[in-house]
């Protein structure tokens, strides 16, 4: 067989395998575009380092399988004895260390199919984002958008750039991604200049308002190197390009994203023919200040999908603070933690979750395998269509995001399940986690969580094997 023909055949088989992913996986459909809402901006322990592999974007127009219809898995439950034996054997692998929690649930009924140390609190790493994004969808709603605005100051020529908590706001040198569509600082500058010129204003004094988020911008549970290493930026309501000096590059992050974005905005206004003050100062916009211009983010459901597929730390932290605002808590790390727990309680998850950040970078977070798998089951339920972006945003084994980097599901015991598992990864020093969903061979939708936080080196191949066992049960 010619090399080209073989490549075409293998590619075709891979695509067909993806298209056979279980019908229990919920995807984003046009339902989410109905009646889109716009959010108005309201007046110790172990050293850990994130090692989440750089995801390879497999698709540019949206998550894989985004147009599949949602159906509940109604096949028979897998045989517990066989599944229990296979999972127990795999959990005995030394690579997992001695502190592991594991759960497999029937997504439809919530029944435990398998459990081992299920209620133990374990450092979840980036699987924390499952909790954060589920809470964001439940609290904010899937159609809410985040607005960055420019308002009139007290003086005729005074304008104020108001941060709306959208870290994906694209700066002047950013290349627009096709999914999710980003709000643009350049567009905001053009709209602002047009509004000012219509008023006959050609000379302005620019200030910026970063007050939507409160508290420390750096979580106490974060390693000091996270920001200089480019893992995350200090959390600010006003930021562009997620606080990166160079869009798309991991290192470094700027120490003051708000001031950095405001300075860039001043240059953009100047390019629009306005004379702008040399000094750009921080201020607080007057209550009820007239709006001159605004740009809006993609809807929350798209932000959630991006957060999960690419394990985006900055966006996860921003969403956590927006949850805090919606739930009447301070927009801080502590307020976000309380707000997330309150939302989970409304969803029926009242124990097994302790979070101090939204991204999972904190080594102080503790989540049980039971709570993690249960949140995924709730998110995949027909009773909660507002949460379906949790499932559609999870990476697909061997194809997308942090499971599509060429390192996952490559072993002989997991490779046959490529395309049949959808799951969120988590990686810190000595921590490996994997939580998601799959359909048993007879059509039953199952959710799972495998969490280990005393890993000697890496347990990723074992976690892949565990998920593969679920998928072929």
UniProtKB/TrEMBL annotation:
Region (Disordered) residue spans: 40-60
Any GO MF annotation of the entry: serine-type carboxypeptidase activity
Stored InterPro entries: Beta-lactam/transpept-like (IPR012338), Peptidase_S13 (IPR000667)
Hydrolase in keyword set: yes
Keywords linked to the UniProt accession: Carboxypeptidase, Hydrolase, Protease
GO biological process: peptidoglycan metabolic process; proteolysis
Domain of life: Bacteria
Keyword Flavoprotein: no
PANTHER family (UniProt xref): D-ALANYL-D-ALANINE CARBOXYPEPTIDASE (PTHR30023), PENICILLIN-SENSITIVE CARBOXYPEPTIDASE A (PTHR30023:SF0)
Record family assignment: Belongs to the peptidase S13 family.
NCBIfam families from the UniProt entry: PBP4
Protein name: D-alanyl-D-alanine carboxypeptidase / D-alanyl-D-alanine-endopeptidase (Penicillin-binding protein 4)
Organism: Nonomuraea pusilla
